Amino acid sequence: MPSNQPHIPERSFGKDFKTFFLRGLAIVLPTALTIWLLVIAYQFVNQNIAGPINSGVRAAVIQFSNWPEPQDKDFVEIFDDLPKIRQDDWEITELDRIEKELGLNNLPGSVQRTKRLEWMKSQDDIVFEARLHAFEEQWDSIRVGDFRVLNLIGIVLAIILIYIAGVLVTSFIGRRFYRMGENLISRVPLVRSVYPAVKQVTDFFFSDDPDEKIDFNRVVAVQYPRKGLWSVGLVTGDTMQLIETTAGQPCLTVFVPSSPTPFTGYVITVPKVDTIDLPITVEEALKFAVSGGVVIPQNQVIKRAGAEQMVLPGTEAEAEESPTSAAD
């Protein structure tokens, strides 16, 4: 006689492990990817922007103050890093003079070290290098783990300088000087070939002028980099006239963001009929790219029979607010 009780699926360690592992992965992976992207961004800024600023700060402190006072060990440690011509000044010129004065053919090692130290302290350029070495050691001594705390000075100064530059350029006088600088750059060979293209790209992303800023008007799916492989792209507009004429049909220019850094990617031109409009927002498309495909828009989650649907934190609320979800 058949039972009316509902069928309870059998539980096993393998199924439970898979369920909870995927659930934990959905919670942990977005956070881990976010931290990873922030670390990459910090390393880039610290190496290419903050690093040179920090070097300038250290050099300015040494140049315009008497601090810090170098110790004997600082002179000893920098000697091998001095230009060879300065090392030769000691070994060929100064050492030879001292030996002749003392009537010796070869000074004892301890006397050589003492005389070399006295000579180094009398050379202004070497004293500067010794003070810089002492300052760098103190600079690097303030740490939290492997993180050099004082390196934040360069990042803070970079933010302040960029802010000041933005304020100055918005003023009438600042715009005049900015245009004068651009005119000078446009006359420099090689630079004038690169600068306009770089400026156009940065204006597309960061300009407040709607005529200069890229307008990603919709999201599409295209078969890229080959047939059978689908990529999510952002439509930037129509293509060039010659391309469309050669293709013989309407075409679109699509920006395919890379993962996990969506500000880089590929610009492709595809026939309009080969694109599929996706009912998602540009923000949802960028989240999909940044997360490596983990964060799927709620209205595009595939509901498979017998599979438990996993909802990422916050996506339910986003789906309710999204007009595309309501339409779906």
Automatic annotation (TrEMBL):
Keywords: Membrane, Transmembrane, Transmembrane helix. The chain crosses the membrane at residues 20-45, 149-173. It holds the Pfam family DUF502. PANTHER family: COV-LIKE PROTEIN 1 (PTHR31876), PROTEIN LIKE COV 2 (PTHR31876:SF26). This is Putative membrane protein. It comes from Algisphaera agarilytica.
